[in-house]
Amino acid sequence: MEPLQPPEVRSYQYPSQSGRGLFRSLIVGMLGAALFFFLYNAGILDRIPGFTKLYASRQATSTPISKTVNTIQVQEESATKSVVEKSKPSVVSIVVSEKASKLQSQNSVSPFQNDPFFNQFFGNGGNLFDQNTPFEDDVNKEIEVQEGSGFVVSADGMILTNRHVVNIDDAQYTVIFDDATSYDAKILARDALTDLALLKIDAMGLTPLELADSDQAAVGDTVIAIGNTLGEYSNTVTKGIVSGLSRNLGGEYSGLIQTDAAINQGNSGGPLININGQVIGINTAVDRSGEGIGFAIAINEAKSAIDSVQKNGRIIHPGLGIRYVQITPEVAQVNHLLYDYGAYIKGSQKEPGVIPESAADKAGLKEGDIILEVDGTKVDEDHSLASLIKDHVVGDTVKIKVFTDGQEKTMTVTLEELPEEAQ
To answer: Is residue 74 classed exposed, middle or buried when 0-12, 13-18 and 19+ CB atoms within 10 A define those classes?
Structure first.
């Protein structure tokens, strides 16, 4: 066997390897560059057919990043101004007034006085009234006690706002537009389950704001809040982004849109608007333990309420007719429950867990039962019982899986209108 030969070593001759060739190329290149700049500055190259067009096209395809960013910012600012200009005529301030005699008798005590929930999210010690309101010698004089915001949802004068803005019985409600035109308003409906309310003014030809599909809202979307800030600065505009979705504050406040757009006292009931000029939410509350943490009720929640009032003259909710606690791992541990999810039917000393003659009562549900699923969807923190029921209408049937008498059962329940005491 012949010995292996090392691989052949090839030598390559590279251009201009010699010092003389390299020097010659350098001189030629410098002279060529000097000639090009001379001809360009003298305008001679512009006379060559096609040169100007080629140079311009190359410049056009190399747009600086800073110029692109500035263009986007200008476009967004222009869109924001357009949305505000279009929306402000449909956003209103709502002024609530009471007779001096009534204030003197009740000393302006709010039903939410010292309530920790309302104190955290609405401020003023949970009191929605102004404790410093001076009493008048004229007991029949109307005195402003609180203010909020709202917006037009129908051409014939229907105004949407929060229930907590117009929660005083026998009060005088006044709606004021951006041009200072004012109308007396009457309450069409107030809904404790959603904290929504609808007012009616005697006006025609109004421009309602367009309502978006709030299910399409995404974290990072640009949003604009408009409202009667602090009851003094009507149609104040703030801007931010959607910071979170499906936030739960407890009670009726679930499925909320979180935003860092400033929402101040007096903004409640005003619209949260996307960059297309559509309402995605109703500004409702702020978390005062932090900064830039505001919440809005998703507008899809209000659509059914508006439709219900227009058809029935009131807000109708389908429901089972129960009072319950959403089970979490902590709730399960405290109550020694077998499941860490579900709706635990539980009343109080004053209110039963199952309302007599309700849909749940007729189906055989009772205190202590746990509703585990509705139509195959697990009842948990992401899918509350209320959210699984709310998209139905009165008369619909739902299949529920329930833990009762030590075992799981599946039953069919026909939804009925919730009685007022359940709302």
So the answer is: exposed
Interval 127-144: pLDDT, tens: 544 445 555 556 666 777
State how far the alpha carbon of 327 is from the alpha carbons of 336, 369, 423, in Å.
Answer: 11, 12, 21
Helix, strand, coil percentages, rounded to 5, for the chain: 30, 30, 40
Catalytic residue among 97, 110, 149, 195: 195
Q: Is 164 a catalytic residue?
A: yes
Torsion on CA atoms 395, 396, 399, 405, rounded to nearest 10 = -20
Q: Which of 254, 268, 304, 308 is catalytic?
A: 268
Active site residue 191: no
The CATH number of 89-201 is 2.40.10.10
Q: Is 85 helix (H, G, I), strand (E, B) or coil?
A: helix
Told to judge if 268 belongs to the known catalytic residues of this protein, a careful annotator would answer: yes
Measured CA to CA, the distance from residue 331 to residue 370 in angstroms comes to 12
Tens of pLDDT along 223-279? 989 887 765 667 788 888 998 887 877 655 777 889 888 887 778 889 999 999 999
Fold of 211-309: Thrombin, subunit H (2.40.10)
Choice among 90, 110, 164, 214 that is catalytic:
164
Write the CB contacts of 253 (distance below 8 Å, at least 6 apart in sequence): 195, 284, 285, 295, 297
Task: Give domain limits for the chain.
Answer: 89-201, 211-309, 318-422
